[in-house]
From TrEMBL:
<keyword id="KW-0677">Repeat</keyword>
<keyword id="KW-0720">Serine protease</keyword>
<dbReference type="InterPro" id="IPR001940">
    <property type="entry name" value="Peptidase_S1C"/>
</dbReference>
<dbReference type="InterPro" id="IPR036034">
    <property type="entry name" value="PDZ_sf"/>
</dbReference>
<feature type="binding site">
    <location>
        <position position="174"/>
    </location>
    <ligand>
        <name>substrate</name>
    </ligand>
</feature>
<dbReference type="GO" id="GO:0042597">
    <property type="term" value="C:periplasmic space"/>
</dbReference>
<keyword id="KW-0378">Hydrolase</keyword>
<feature type="active site" description="Charge relay system">
    <location>
        <position position="245"/>
    </location>
</feature>
<feature type="domain" description="PDZ">
    <location>
        <begin position="284"/>
        <end position="354"/>
    </location>
</feature>
<keyword id="KW-0574">Periplasm</keyword>
<feature type="active site" description="Charge relay system">
    <location>
        <position position="174"/>
    </location>
</feature>
<dbReference type="InterPro" id="IPR011782">
    <property type="entry name" value="Pept_S1C_Do"/>
</dbReference>
<dbReference type="Pfam" id="PF17820">
    <property type="entry name" value="PDZ_6"/>
</dbReference>
<feature type="region of interest" description="Disordered">
    <location>
        <begin position="106"/>
        <end position="127"/>
    </location>
</feature>
<dbReference type="InterPro" id="IPR006311">
    <property type="entry name" value="TAT_signal"/>
</dbReference>
<dbReference type="GO" id="GO:0004252">
    <property type="term" value="F:serine-type endopeptidase activity"/>
</dbReference>
<feature type="active site" description="Charge relay system">
    <location>
        <position position="144"/>
    </location>
</feature>
Length: 500
């Protein structure tokens, strides 16, 4: 609708007819002018809308399949029958077993009836996928594909079969490298997983349920998904099923950007959520497997947990970041450096620890014997703590507990607490704290349990029951309260909300 403007000739002719009509029309014009010019003026002053990308059509994957398909292999594993373990087929969902039988595919984990008389007869155990790294026969796959296998058969797209040997496997990242004796093989092109964008199209090739060279496609749903200690997974909606494990995730440039490794599914089949190992992480592991046959990582000897927004705000950290130290192993590098339970590690040699899952990766990538500087948040202040890392091993120190003493005091927080004997403090390697005998009300709802040890209250270290009781009585009920709590060998912050 056009604007009405009293200065235009046609409007002037109308308003000059009579004073009464002039006043009436002027009021009408003014009212309409306000009604119409307001939004129009706002629209004129608004920022120009950003033109979105024009979607011209869905991608055509045919050329990608022709380019990368010959580099993808099928991996069959066999394991010698070992009593009850060989008969693992009954663990599969009945519908999945029926699917295998209809397509004439051997059921993974199920014994070959003809081999009952010979317990040493290799049995077909499972099917996986992989891809060719080098023209001379190095193949990458998942560690869980080759784990426990007595025999590996790699089949190429031209139907040639090769026996393979394991060069090395790493269970922590689920990466394995195997070797076949061949030459002139079509190797994949390695891409950069860091360049992936959420929403980008990707493709998978593999052997789901033993159906070789199956192609599926989808988009990148998310990045940096922490499902383990050492990997920031790529999440996609590409259809991934049993047998796809170890196969490549490929971008539209025909480059491998990940290894299909895990799915999230309540039924065991595809449910729209799958995870791939970023190829840059996998290649770092593969390089070590080729050089040493294993992966060498470092550790400092702490157990960690995420830092929630509630905890960050209650202790003065500001924003949720870093890794909360829940426990420090006795005699570990962290122990010798003076790290304490309740510390929050926010940087490693200047590199920010945005999420707790990043700390093991940053420390693990450092060469054993190297000195690193950790930036730690403790008692509302940042401090630098130098630590010399050591090689990762499986040893862990357990912290035992003694019976608590009998003297109990109930506090304003709804907690009944006791002092901790000096001998038990030494064993727990704590300087103070009180043990919770019972929790009620808001404290119980916040997660405080019987047996917990309260180490700090609102960033104040606790020495004994008397001090804890006095501090609790002075708390402002209109603001949340943070408790640094030890449970067994773990330490965490619990926040009791305001209005308790």
């Amino acid at each position: 609708m056009p604007h009405l403007n009293p200065t235009r000739p046609e409007c002037q002719a109308v308003v000059s007819a009579s004073l009464r009509r002039r006043r009436a029309l002027w009021g009408l014009v003014a009212g309409l002018g306000l009604a119409l010019s307001g939004p129009a003026t706002w629209a004129a002053g608004a920022a120009t809308p950003v033109q979105g990308p024009v979607v011209k059509g869905l991608p055509d994957f045919t050329e990608l399949v022709e380019l990368t398909g010959p580099s993808v292999v099928n991996i069959r594993t066999a394991e010698r029958a070992r009593g009850a373990r060989a008969g693992g087929g009954g663990q599969l969902d009945p519908g999945v077993e029926e699917f295998f039988r209809r397509f004439g595919i051997p059921v993974p984990g199920q014994r070959n009836p003809r081999a009952e008389e010979d317990e040493d007869q290799p049995q077909r155990r499972g099917v996986g996928s992989g891809f060719i790294l080098t023209a001379d026969g190095l193949v990458m796959t998942n560690a869980h594909v080759v784990e426990g296998a007595d025999e590996l058969i790699v089949t190429l797209t031209d139907k040639r079969e090769f026996k393979a040997r394991v060069i090395g496997q790493d269970k922590r990242t689920d990466v394995a490298v195997v070797k076949i004796d061949a030459a002139g093989l079509p190797a994949v092109r390695i891409g950069d997983a860091n360049r992936l964008k959420v929403g980008e199209w990707v493709m998978a090739i593999g052997s789901p349920f033993g159906l070789d060279n199956t192609v599926t496609a989808g988009i990148v749903s998310a990045k940096q998904r922490d499902t383990g200690d050492f990997l920031p997974f790529i999440q996609t909606d590409v259809a991934i099923n049993p047998g796809n494990s170890g196969g490549p995730l490929i971008n539209l440039r025909g480059e491998v950007v990940g290894i299909n490794s895990q799915i999230y599914s309540p039924s065991g089949g595809y449910a729209g959520i799958s995870f791939a190992i970023p190829i840059d992480e996998a290649m770092r592991v593969a390089d070590q497997l080729r050089a040493h046959g294993r992966v060498i990582r470092s550790r400092i000897g702490v157990s960690i947990a995420p830092v929630t927004r509630e905890v960050a705000e209650s202790i003065g950290l500001g924003k949720p970041q870093g890794a909360l130290v829940r426990g420090v192993e006795n005699g570990s590098p962290a122990d010798r450096a003076g790290l304490e339970a309740g510390d929050i590690i926010v940087k490693v040699d200047g590199k920010a620890v945005e999420r707790s899952g990043e700390l093991p990766r940053l420390i693990g990538a450092v060469k054993p014997g190297t000195r690193v500087v950790l930036q730690v948040f403790r008692n509302k202040a940042f401090r630098d703590v130098p630590v010399t890392v050591v090689e990762l091993d499986a040893d862990k120190t357990r912290i035992s507990q003694e019976p608590a003493p009998s003297a109990t005091a109930r506090t304003a927080l709804g907690l009944a607490v006791q002092d901790i004997p000096e001998g038990q403090r030494r064993e727990l390697r704590i300087k103070g704290g009180v043990r919770v005998e019972s929790a009620e009300g808001a404290a119980a709802r916040a997660g405080v349990r019987e047996g917990d040890v309260v180490l700090a209250l609102d960033n104040v270290d606790i020495t004994d029951v008397r001090q804890f009781t006095a501090l609790a009585a002075k708390l402002d009920k209109s603001r949340p309260v943070s408790l640094l709590v030890r449970r067994g060998e773990w330490v965490n912050y619990l926040v009791i909300p305001a209005g308790r």
